Amino acid sequence: MPRAGLDPAAVTLAAAGLADEVGLANVTMGALAERLGVRAPSLYKHIDSQADLNRRIALLVAEELGDALREALQGRSGRDALAAAARTMRDYIVKHPGRYATTIRLGVTGPDDPLAIAGARVLDSLAAVLIAYRIDPADKIHALRLLRSLFHGFATIEAAGGFEMNTEVDDSFDWIVDFVDRGLSLRRESSE
Amino acid sequence: MPRAGLDPAAVTLAAAGLADEVGLANVTMGALAERLGVRAPSLYKHIDSQADLNRRIALLVAEELGDALREALQGRSGRDALAAAARTMRDYIVKHPGRYATTIRLGVTGPDDPLAIAGARVLDSLAAVLIAYRIDPADKIHALRLLRSLFHGFATIEAAGGFEMNTEVDDSFDWIVDFVDRGLSLRRESSE
DNA sequence: CAGGGTTGGCTAACGCCATTAGCTTTTAGC
DNA sequence: GCTAAAAGCTAATGGCGTTAGCCAACCCTG
After folding, report:
1. Do A172 and B145 touch (CB under 8 A)?
2. For the segment A86-127, what is each residue's pLDDT rounded down to a tens digit?
3. How far is B34 from B87, CA to CA, in rounded Å?
4. What pLDDT, in 10s, does the model give residues A57-91?
5. Same domain (yes/no): B118, B147
6. At A190, is the pLDDT very low, low, confident or very high (cuts 50, 70, 90)?
7. Segments forming the whole domain that contains residue B36
């Protein structure tokens, strides 16, 4: 019998896909093993524990999201950049609700934790959106938290099916992006 | 031997408290039973299953949050109301992260589901914040979703310890409330 | 205040899950 | 080809949710 040829990355990727399909809570070692054509205990040759697996998925998410944001923000600034970042985050979360769910509630061990680094890179991309708005440097962290809270909240609620009247969700999204764009424009240094 | 004198409400309340203390994931039937001075299977005399328990906690949250919002919004309008609603939601979620966590991912069965009704009442309170801003009725749903996404996102991230530099979180919160207030003020019917 | 039905507790047991131990087989390098 | 590491396996443990079935405490009627 030939081997399955697994490695930590393959296991992580399969787990992420399974999470998106059946929900993070249903990603059991047995189900994951079955999908990989292997028995559950064999997975422990590649990952330490389920907590370790979640951590690896979260790292994957941070990398994927960071890549997607950098890609989307290339050559854009101001309102274009804002809309692109918002759409990128929304699309990613709605498309990958299971893997995204791993990113809430994880203990970052230290500043050299790969997860902390990848997360910081995501935040850096969001911060890049703010450049063209020329926000007062002292307010930058607040504006960044606004974007993060809003995008995270909107996409999370949408992914959970929390909005009624599905057809209007796109309109709400556009309206909110416009709302933030106008608000940030008012806060340019020159306007105070 | 005397009886413990439990009922569904007492079990739900104890579970909500335990969730806040140890995290929703650690609310096991055994731990909950122990806190109530009872053995795990006895809990099934009061609740149907763990899913049923989560549902009951979520309903409790919707009622508590609705009550708190109505209380806080009494006699306030405009910016005051916005700030009060934001603070109420934030305080509640940060103080009760475990029980609040039950409100994500729950299937509402129909429009007469008590959970749907209680949830709608929470949204009604948020909608009351918008009255004084005299938003164009067609935009009301979008503004409501803005508030909901933002408050939910901010408090969720804060409760999960997602913001660095803890001391500045209060400042960010105030800044964001101010940002939304100004943005909504611009959208009064008269201003378009 | 007697007794019978209902209610709320208990123990025992099942199946599923994560995880560990220890064995066997494949595979890569010399 | 030989050997050692890596990667799979089966078996077993302990914890969890849940069900079945038993017994004691309570309420309520007479």
Report:
1. yes
2. 999 999 999 999 999 999 877 787 889 999 999 999 999 999
3. 34
4. 999 999 999 999 999 999 999 999 999 999 999 99
5. yes
6. low
7. 1-47
Classified as helix, coil or strand, A104 is coil
Nucleotides of D under 7 A from a protein CB: 6-12, 15-21, 24-26
Say what the pLDDT of residue B108 is.
79
Does residue B1 lie within 7 Å of nucleic acid chain D, judged by its CB? yes
In-domain check, residue B145: yes
**Residue A15 within a domain:** no
Q: Name the minimum distance, in Å, from the CA of A116 to any CA of chain B.
A: 11
- What's the token pair of residue A59? 């790292």
Q: Is B160 helix (H, G, I), strand (E, B) or coil?
A: coil
Residues from chain B contacting residue A176 (CB–CB below 8 Å): 142, 145-146, 149
Chain A contacts to B (CB-CB under 8 A) = 23, 104-105, 139, 141-143, 145-146, 148-154, 156-157, 160, 162-163, 165, 168, 171-172, 175-176, 179-180, 182-183, 186-187
Query: What total of structural domains would you count in chain A?
Result: 1
C-alpha to C-alpha distance for B43 and B37, rounded to whole angstroms: 11
Q: Domain with A74 in it: what CATH number?
A: 1.10.357.10
- Within window 17-76 on A, which residues have Cβ closer than 7 Å to strand D? 33, 38-39, 41-42, 45-46
B156 in the same domain as B78: yes
- How is residue B191 annotated by DSSP? G
DSSP state of B104: S
